[in-house]
Design goal:
This protein has 213 residues and is α+β, with helices and mostly antiparallel strands. It has 2 helices and 12 strands, in the order αββββββββββββα. The protein has a domain of 125 residues: Sandwich (Immunoglobulin-like), CATH 2.60.40. 33% of the residues lie in helices and 31% in strands. InterPro entries: Ig-like_dom, Ig-like_dom_sf, Ig-like_fold, Ig_sub, Ig_V-set, Myelin_P0-rel.
């Protein structure tokens, strides 16, 4: 039934890694891998797991790098197993159900896909996951936005000129229209006056008696 379907959607477990699913890290640095989950009916004995798939070698099964368990909303997660280089930095007793981790001392071999997976027994073992793609670089390259700023400035200037031109055009058309309306009024008034004067003159001429012989 449609009502039951909407109700089921409202109770769905959701996992998110933020607005972007790509992260770039400098070699030998520490990088944050964000992840939060939401559920409308709460959770009990929730288990979350981080997996890694390397891009350099073919791995049939994802490598587990961190696994934790959360008893309920009032308790913080407890680790079940974790890679020594992985540190849990999230919290579930605060506003967001944050289960983010930090990968310390990243290497080029750490580049690849990281999956944040959550399973909630309270929602009939509902499961959901989200993925982050990590790129490891030797040097961070600063992007030069000069060209972009120039293009934006030129486009903005052209748009401004176009708007100004349209406004001037409207004003000129308005003035022309008013001038034409004024001329029409003058012509009508002048024509009316001439007819009246001619009529009066004709009337007066007709009223004069013919000269006596």
């Amino acid at each position: 039934l449609p009502g039951l379907h909407i109700f089921a959607m409202a109770l769905a477990l959701e996992v998110s890694v933020g607005k972007t699913n790509t992260v770039m890290a400098l070699n030998n640095s520490n990088v944050l891998l964000p992840c939060v989950f939401t559920t409308c009916i709460g959770f009990q004995d929730l288990v979350f797991t981080w997996y890694f798939n390397s891009t350099e070698m073919l791995i049939l099964l994802p490598l587990q790098i961190y696994q934790g368990k959360i008893k309920n909303k009032a308790t913080e997660p407890t680790p079940i197993w974790h890679n020594p280089r992985v540190e849990f930095v999230g919290s579930t007793t605060k506003k967001d159900n944050n289960i983010s981790i930090v990968l310390n001392g990243v290497e080029f071999s750490d580049a690849g896909k990281y999956t944040c997976h959550v399973k909630n027994p309270k929602e009939r073992n509902a499961q959901h996951s989200a993925t982050i793609f990590l790129t490891v670089v030797h040097k961070m390259v600063e992007t030069d936005n000069t060209v972009t700023l120039i293009i934006v400035g030129v486009v903005g200037g052209l748009i401004g000129l176009l708007i100004l031109f349209m406004l001037i055009k409207r004003v000129v058309l308005f003035i022309i229209k008013k001038t034409q309306d004024g001329k029409k009024e003058c012509l009508v008034s002048s024509s009316g006056n001439d007819n009246t004067e001619n009529g009066l003159a004709g009337s007066k001429a007709e009223q004069k008696a013919p000269p006596k012989a």
